[in-house]
Design brief:
The chain is an alpha+beta fold. It contains 5 helices and 30 strands. The strands form 8 sheets. A 4-stranded antiparallel β-sheet has the order 7-30-29-28, with no helix packed on it. The chain has a 4-stranded antiparallel β-sheet with strand order 8-9-10-11, with no helix packed on it. The longest helix has 109 residues. The two termini are 49 Å apart.
Length: 572
Amino acid sequence: MASESQIPPDAQHYLVCGSEDCEKNCQFYCNDCHQPMCEQCQDKHQKNKKTKSHEVVPYKQRKRQLPVEKCQIHPTKEMVLLCEECQIPICYKCTARKEHRGHAFTDLEIDFDEKVSLCHEEIAKIRNYFEPTSQDLKKEIAGDATEIKKIMDGIKTSMKAEAESLKKLVDTVTSDKIKQVEKIEQSLLETLNGQNQKIDVYINYLSDLITTFYSYLSPSNIKQITLALKSESFIIQPIPETSKPVPPVFTAGNFSKEDVTQLLGRITVPNTKPENRKIKPMETASTQLKPTGKQRKQGREKSDVKLTLSLSSSVTKVREYTVPGVSNVFHISLGKSGRLWVSDGDCNLVQTDLQGNQLQKIQTSGGSEGYHTVTHDGDLIYTDKNNKVINRITPDNTINEFIKTGNCKPLSIHSSHINGDILVGMRKGEEAKVTRYNKTGTEIQNIQRDKKGQELYSDPHYITENINGDVCVSDYRKHAVVVVDKSGQHRFSYTGQRSNFNPFGISTDVLGHILVCDDTVHLLDQDGQFLSLLLTNQQGVYSPCSVCVDDENNLWLGQNITNRVAVYKYLQ
């Protein structure tokens, strides 16, 4: 069996309570005894006078037990300290040695625990960011390969069509020239035929003349021959003149392979530097590790150094787009390659590029809900509350039924950037819930009530996910933003800064901020604390309905009074 340190932090393994004769599932860990324990044993442990002061934490937040290793200099002593200057483990007796005098020492168990935690953090980074991002790049490369094949097939088809067109033109010209040759041939043959007929007439004349001359040879025609020899008819007419035909001469055309190549067009490879593929920043990748209080402090200290983003002192509008085919903007889903999907209150769902060209338009059953989202694969999925299904549109614009939601009407939907799960806000009569599906469409979680059995939701018409896995819902009927953790436990509800809070579009950013639309855009921290009104009437924002944050940390905003989408910079 693998040791505890070898088991991946996200592995599904069963740990047994370490108390004697107890085989229940381990949930807690005593950092002082280094013993796993179930909930019942943990309760006993903390009520026991001898151990009530021990530090008992959830199992995932445990300190790792220091492996027993003897000092090489003092073989009977265990190494329990770390010399900070020498950066080597030592035993207590080593502190008195000359080479360590005046040095600072750290508890080796604490140092070991921190290093183990760092290893798990790196593992989590690899699994939650580097591996998925690499897989995304593989999919993008495969998509590019498909696109290149399609482009090259198109070029081949164009070349064949060009060649076919040239062949037809050559056939036409050849046919015209052959007709010209046939006309010349006909003219020459007619001339020769005329000459032949003239010779035939002359030969007939000669035959007749011979007959006449024979008649003169009779002894009874002496007088007649005498007269005939004196007449002009006795003179033989000359042979008719004829001429030889002059045939035409064919001069071959002067052309080469290069001439034909020019006629058939050319292929050029643009002399431009290939654009590097975009890799999403690691700040957007969440980790499944639950840090201890000490680790949280370390994380905050590291964030102060590493994280360069912070709230800007002012919000600046950087771009604005007009979306054709919609009357207003109730929800925005950002796709790949500079494309976005926008829906209005009249059931129109439109795909457009950043030049304002409408690429696709679909009539849906959605209105004032966040009913569409773009997946990791670039597919759009959207809810159909009338037919109680969720549809998927692939990049080739094929619409397929993806998930059936039974008796519940799906209202809002969000594709997780963390693991690809699909979160759906839905309602059946007066009851409402959030259902989690995996990326293949299998239902894996339902979130409906808090620990007291109270209904969490009434009208979950917009939904998103924060970087820590929290599920954030705008509930119009409850006049609140309802936030639960990824296990479904209620964390907090935000009800605005005044009465009659009516939340609409909701989004989160890489810092864990929650942005939600009312008649302004509210900015909250990850724990629901109000930070500011980010966009108000002073910035020309009067009826915001939809909000989202892109990979470059720009805020995209849509309003109920216009079909224009504005883009703002609020982080620096």
